[in-house]
Amino acid sequence: MLFEPGTPLADAVKAARSAALRGNVLGVDLAYARAAKISPAVAHDHCATLLNLGAITRAAQRCDEYLSTGNDTTLRILRTQIRSAATDHVAAERDVRELRKLKLTELEQARLARVAALAAADRYDYPTAESELDAAERHFRRAGRPEHLEHIGRDRLLLDVRRGTRVSKLRDRTPRTPAEFLQRAAALRREVWYEEALAVMTRCVTSYQIEPALRFAVLYELTVLLVMTRQAGTARRLFPLLAAAAGPEVISQLPDATQALRPERRLTHVRRLIARDELLKAEGMLGEGNSPLWHLTAAELAYAQGRLEQAARHFEIASRAGHAELTALALRKLGDTFADAGHEELAARHWAESHRVEEDLADHRDSPSVKLRMLRAAPDVRDGRVRAAARRAAREGPKALAGLVVAVEAARAGPGPAEAGPRALPGFTDLAAARRWLAGTTRHLPKDQVVWMMHATPDQLHHVLVGRRTTHVTTSVHIGDLTDTIRRLKAWKPKYDRAILGALLAELAGLIGLEDIVAALPPKTTRLVVVAGGVLADVPLAGLPVPGTNLFLGMTHALSSLPCLSALRPRQRSARKQRGDEAAVCEEASELRRTLEEGRSHRIRIDAQAAHDRMNPDQSWLQFADERVSVEALEKMDFSACGTVVLGACDSGIVRAVTAAGPGAVVAARWQAEDTAARKVLDAFDRNLTKLPRDRALQHALVEVADRHPADWACWSLHGDAGFQTSAGPLRRRLRKNGDPVPLETRPKVFLSFAGKDRAHAEQLRAELESRNVNAYLAEDESTPGDTAATSIDEALATSDYHVLLWSANTPRREPAAEWTAAFTREMTRRRAFLFIVRLDEEPLPPLLAPRKHIDLVDAADRLVATWRSDRKSELPVFPQPVPPKPDGPTVAISVRSHDLGTTHVVMTPLHLTGASLYRAVFAAMQLPTEQITFDGTIGMRFSYELYHQNEPIPDDESTVELTSDVVDIAVRVESFGKSSSPSGREYRQDDELDEGVDVDQQRMLLVAAFRHLLP
After folding, report:
1. Do residues 326 and 293 make contact, with C-beta atoms less than 8 angstroms apart?
2. CA distance 89 to 211
3. 753 pLDDT above the threshold of 60
4. What is the pLDDT of residue 254?
């Protein structure tokens, strides 16, 4: 069929044929589906291509869809061939009878004759089959299609195989027919060349259309070889096809294992009864014996009955068998027995020995892929621990889940360079120690966050959800199926069809049992910390569709990942020291090195292209504008001062290297995202970091592009600490300040506002400020002829860093009070300290200014300059102390910094400090509240405080305090209570949310009421 080049129809057909050459069934189906929407003429090619690729079910489905809109004879004949290939010979023969009533071409009659011959052979009517093949040969000759005569010859050979006629023995020549491939594979299997035999059968089923007459023999041989090469998951999927191909005649001839005289068959049946928990019937059939298989069966029966000592003895005898596979199985089950008895070390020893036997079996294989597959399907020590812990949790209930958490944790990699040293994990059989370890590790886990741990054993995927309670969920999936889907997902590129990515993500969501996981999450869970290793670490969880909704996991939950649960607390502690809002973008490697050496940037976005060596995928690097930086060089860089590093599309090796260099968290893409979407996600992420934790910041950024295909955003993931990047505390994040401190390199510009009668005091203050390197000017200095007063004031305030209002009895009579009202408005707009009040006498302040801090004229210059100097050095707005000091001896100014409130206050303290005197001075100067109650005392908060100097707590006693700097940090402890909750205390840290005993609006009201006098 010819199409005009360059048209959408031609492009779709070209894509379908290209996918067919690669054997990509999904790609063929999607491409032809697009083409069929343009022209139905491709319907036959669509179904025939699917049939040739072996996708019989998909071909039948598409053929029925096309026939529902028409009655094309060619498609009806093709449907008959599809039904024959699906071993539905009854329906195929019925179709043949109906179609032969129509006027058909010679070629169509030939194809129907072949189908009729196969149907006759299936019902053992070999003379009719021979007659139909003769008719097919005549029709092909009359149609002038002699190339199809080779198919007729192959059909005659298959018919001979089906009825047991002798076939000439193959020698060293290459097999040319499915029957010859089958003979070659059977010969190789007898010589124990399993992988070579599997390769022969794989080439057979991928290169030839296996006719139904030979389908059972081919499927049987393929199933046996898959089992022998440890691909049980794939073999299980062939069982329904195997039973369908065998037919009732073959199944009825299978011997009854219970009546068989061979002991091996009887023992195999006993083991099936044990697996079905029919223990009484199994015990009655076991009998006596002394073979390794009998001891293995007796051990399994004793183990199922709980007689562990007797089971261990029989497993020990069975493990001394000469058969390697039976030895490996007996050793593994012996390890399970010791684990259930509480002997963890003995269990690990036998699991390890069993795995060594499996490794020896794999070493006899030549193909690395076959070796890897066999080793992956063989349980190791880590799998043994997880399985044993899961069995105990199933027996004893939730109280044993801590042991399962420890077992899964032991299977993960170490915590990493940021948490140097070995992990002190308890044994998974010591439940008391496991519970203590788990409680200590997750003590500071937020209420809305859950740790999702995953571990894949050869036949199951174990999920452990750790939050306020622990839940265990299992998903039955073979490791081979899971690995194959993830491998295909990793191989997907943005240039491929996006529908393929969507289909793979949906398939993966089903394999891992996402629906069960979401259902098992505690209520109000909005954040997930994923702990997964191996192939599971490569899953783009954000793009998995949540079953039953139109949403994706990255939209419904804020996601982050850690290498292991033990890294949770160390990462939280180290990331706390890396907080800040200073950001940098590095496009050159030299710029990145300089930024890291300066150590001032808390967020770094690396604008470089990741690449790797095609001949050696383990060799990867970042290509900057000026040079290439290898993974080894990245790992040696010092990111310890940086809280968040943002990378582009890069492999897991680069992410691990940057993570090992010490940042709090790394944001990276698994594939190259579309430029516009990537820019929008990263800009939104940077914007959200000022008020949200990292995981929520990324989640909100992804929501902004949720209207696009997951291919544009599902690649982004967060590795490391999920907490806050900003150094602002909870209240400051709610009332976020947007003003920036005055740069250090500039002299602050101060606007002095006063009443006319107070000019002398204003001139005195200006002189004192000028002598202290401050640019101070009076209100009249800025006015020029022709300017209105309002215009002059607005321009002066707009160019000033601070405004000082001199307040006295003369000020209220001044008309208008435009300067200080405009300054107050500007301060509220900037959301930072701008308006300062200097009182000249005892004249009361107006209600709008009454709650504000003020300074007496006596030491106004010194206190103002000290405040502004601290303001320029601090990342937080700096204010004078709310209550004017009453010195009793020499004093010194210190800056009391509160990240919780987002402010710094200059406090005058005694020159010779003790811990108690420092606490008294801070409490008195800042008027710190101890309680805030409203609604008739039913709702409120209690506050306690602790002072720190350089991250060390200052004791509240008479010991002398030596301050090496003039900055002291104050931390607040909040204890809230409400109508529906009992008092519950928690430390009011930078990354904590407020207590959930009170709702958000009540929290805000109480906090603002308690600390209003300390806010601008």
Report:
1. yes
2. 12
3. yes
4. 44
